[in-house]
Specification:
Layout: E1 4-11, E2 19-28, E3 31-39, H1 50-53, H2 57-60, H3 66-79, E4 82-85, H4 88-101, E5 111-113, H5 114-122, H6 129-136, H7 145-161
Parallel strand pairs: 1-4, 4-5
Antiparallel strand pairs: 1-2, 2-3
């Protein structure tokens, strides 16, 4: 079975380098083997998306920046053969931008997208994370990075149980 890591970022502003929260859920042998969730101090104190995720500068200013979190996060990503995210181009973009901003070696893993999987396997529309979770009866506290990553892992596992391969769309 595919060993993958479901990843979800929340961002503070429109900059892809503004990660303020992340969760990584590592799945091995069809079960969650490890997970990480953490707040991140973004490079700017301006929070544009508090109304979405509820996080503020006061929540994150004492957290490590992305480079400070990377030694805990990178080993989980390295253990995965594939990264999975809901609307993967967004999370891939945040990972790439944060690695570039801090001069970190991006693991350059292929990404699979659970939006694409949900459309292909179950013909779910609209394909927002709450819609797919409702369709598959997966618990979700939307825009909580850990809950979103766990739900994404659940979507990928449901597809695998139906014999659908997790096809990467990009590296």
């Amino acid at each position: 079975m595919t060993r993958f890591a479901a990843i979800d970022f929340e961002t503070a502003d429109n900059g892809r380098d503004s990660a303020c929260s992340v969760a990584v859920v590592l799945v091995e042998d069809g079960r969650i083997a490890d997970q990480l969730t953490a707040l991140i101090r973004p490079p700017r104190p301006y929070f544009r998306f508090t109304h979405i995720h509820g996080l503020t500068w006061d929540d994150c200013r004492g957290a490590p920046d992305f480079a400070g979190l990377w030694p805990r996060m990178a080993p989980l990503l390295e253990r995965a053969d594939l990264l999975v995210a809901h609307n993967a181009p967004f999370d891939k973009g945040v990972l790439n931008a944060c690695c570039a901003a801090y001069g970190l070696r991006n693991p350059l893993k292929p990404f699979a997208c659970t939006v694409r999987i949900a459309r292909h396997v179950w013909n779910v529309y609209p394909t927002k994370l709450p819609d797919v979770c409702r369709h598959l009866n997966i618990a979700l506290k939307h825009h909580d990075a850990l809950s979103d990553a766990q739900a994404c892992a659940g979507i990928a596992l449901a597809a695998l149980r139906q014999g659908v391969a997790l096809e990467p769309f990009a590296r």
